[in-house]
Amino acid sequence: MGGFAPIILASPYTLMVTVGAFLIGFAIAIPLMFMRRSKFVPFRLVAQGFIDIARGIPPIVWLFFIYFGLPGIGILLDPLEAAIIGLGIISAGYLAEIFRGGLVAVPKGQFEASHALGLGSWTMFAKVIAPQALRAMLPGLATYFIGLVKDSSIASVIGVTEMVFAASTYARRSPEGILLFFIAAVVYMALSIPMGLAARGMEARMRKAGAR
Amino acid sequence: MTNIFQFWANIFPKLFDGLIVSLELTALSLLIGLPLGLLLALGVSSQFKPLSWLSIALVEIGRGAPALVVLYVVYFGLPALHWSPTAFLCAVIGLTYTTAAYAGEYLRGGLRSVNAGTIEAGQALALTNVDVLRFVIIPQGLRVAIPSLMGLAIQIFQATSLTYSITVSELTANAYSISNQTFRALETFALAGLMYAAITIPASWVTRQVERRMSLGQ
């Protein structure tokens, strides 16, 4: 019995998919959130459409569409790239909504006070609004990231050699392979429980910093 | 080369058959999983420690392990215990467990939000503990949990696509086999995606309305 080795060796791929998708999602979600709040209606409709489609289609269908479908129009991606882009698009949809929720949580008076102080819109956003919004959306971000660690297992269906791919390869070969799924499950929980605790700690610290 | 709408019209019936299977899986998982979730929620808040620990473990494992891993464990694990149910039944078992674990967490939150005063009022009226649970705590707790349970239903509907990997012929699996036969993956998965979205987008819209209406009532 190979024990932990195949799972541990595959875990960097789990992290790569998760972190890659989160970063892509974060980068797309910022302009998406501004478009969603824009006064220009077509921007708002496009952003809302993107968010709904990104979140409304199951991840596995996104990955198949990108990995098997896009080569039809000349875009060839390897499994890892396809998984990161696919989960990145979905993350963008969810993160844009989390960002919006964070902004809504900032009291209107903060915007008015910034205007009254004659701050430019960039300064207002960077120095006044963003720090407060970040505090409000931290729990949402942490929960989403932890969920994404688990969703990265879906990358196995297009052949990314992450933990579930390794486990299912062994499980098909021998009956004891089932144990590898238990090991994988333990690793997922070992990843998500400390992350949850860290997020809660970070939240408490930011709340204290905010109260000062 | 037929045009895309002609192609979509050709493959629609098979995808639609798959969609029906996806909906059946969703309905069965919710029908069995939600009552189990309520039992787990009650178990977590039980005074009897071993029951409470067991319930917490079941909820945390079900939420901590990816749904895909749960499905694989059922699919590869049950035959090792000398029981080989069909792939469809394995999918129902796996998704039911995931549903129950999440529902357990949401319902626990709902039950905890019930105002202590109403519970005391029930006791003051000499209701038995079971009656306080049945007529006071559960109806109010359920109500609070409704929006998150609706969100869960949408998540479970999306999660039925994972059962493709344990060979259930649902929407994603049918799309996969069509794309293998026709070599038109782009159009096939686009239609499959739109079919999922045609259900999830209106459903999440309804969920948002319910959420808004309930928050107005408070």
Can you offer a commentary on this structure?
The complex is a heterodimer of chains A (about 210) and B (about 220). Chain A contains eight helices and no strands. Chain A is mainly alpha-helical. Chain A has helices at about 5-35, 40-55, 60-70, 80-105, 110-115, 120-150, 165-175, 180-210. Chain A has a single domain (about 5-210), classed as MetI-like fold (Orthogonal Bundle), CATH 1.10.3720.10. In chain A, helix 1 runs antiparallel to helix 6 (about 120-150). The termini of chain A are far apart. Chain B has one domain (about 5-215): MetI-like fold (Orthogonal Bundle), CATH 1.10.3720. Chain B is about 85% helix and about 0% strand. Chain B contains eight helices and no strands. Chain B has helices spanning about 5-45, 50-65, 65-80, 85-110, 115-125, 130-160, 170-180, 185-215. The radius of gyration of chain B is 21 Å and the shape is flat. Chains A and B meet through helix 2, helix 3, helix 7 and helix 8 of A and helix 2, helix 3, helix 7 and helix 8 of B.
Short note summarizing the structure:
Chain A is an all-alpha fold and 212 residues long. Chain A has helices spanning 5-37, 41-56, 59-69, 79-104, 108-116, 121-151, 163-173, 178-211. The relative contact order of chain B is 0.15.
Write the layout of secondary structure elements.
The complex is a heterodimer of chains A (212) and B (218).
Chain A (H helix, E strand, L loop, with lengths): L4 H33 L3 H16 L2 H11 L9 H26 L3 H9 L4 H31 L11 H11 L4 H34 L1
Chain B lengths: L3 H41 L4 H16 L2 H14 L6 H26 L3 H9 L4 H31 L11 H12 L2 H32 L2
Helix pairs in contact in B: 1-2, 1-4, 1-7, 1-8, 2-4, 3-4, 4-6, 5-6, 6-8, 7-8
